[in-house]
Amino acid sequence: MKLSLACVVLAAVSLVSAAEFAFTEPKLNATYHPGDTVKIQWHDYDGTKPTASLWLGTGQRALHWHPYKIIANLTEPFPTSYTWSIPKNFKKQRYYLVITNQTPYQPKSDYFFVA
């Protein structure tokens, strides 16, 4: 079976447009401590969102993820990073980040730890 270059390009564009966001920081298994400042970064493939929220999740990174705490409400002009100060009394465990907006796709970061 032969695939045309146009089909391959169309498939790649569809994946990127469906993704909308991709986290670049924090890296997988990064470890932070209460009181640390963390620079959270992502790539915004779409750039057309008026608002979104940045959440911490716990448990499994699945379709039905477990929200733990909202850490930011993002508005236009839509940023591609956020600096978060981990509270001194923050629960020590494994987390991931989720950007939520009005679309069904909610990208999740790699797991990281607060230790």
Task: Outline the structure in words.
With 115 residues, the chain is mostly beta strands. 13% of the residues lie in helices and 43% in strands. It has one helix and eight strands. The protein has one helix spanning 5-19; strands spanning 21-25, 30-32, 37-44, 51-58, 66-75, 81-85, 93-100, 112-114. The strands form two sheets. The protein has a five-stranded mixed beta sheet with strand order 2-8-7-4-5, with no helix packed on it. Strands 1-3-6 form a three-stranded antiparallel beta sheet, with no helix packed on it. The protein is globular. Residues 5-18 have low confidence and may be disordered. This is Yeast cell wall synthesis Kre9/Knh1-like N-terminal domain-containing protein. Keywords: Signal. Residues 1-18 form the signal peptide.
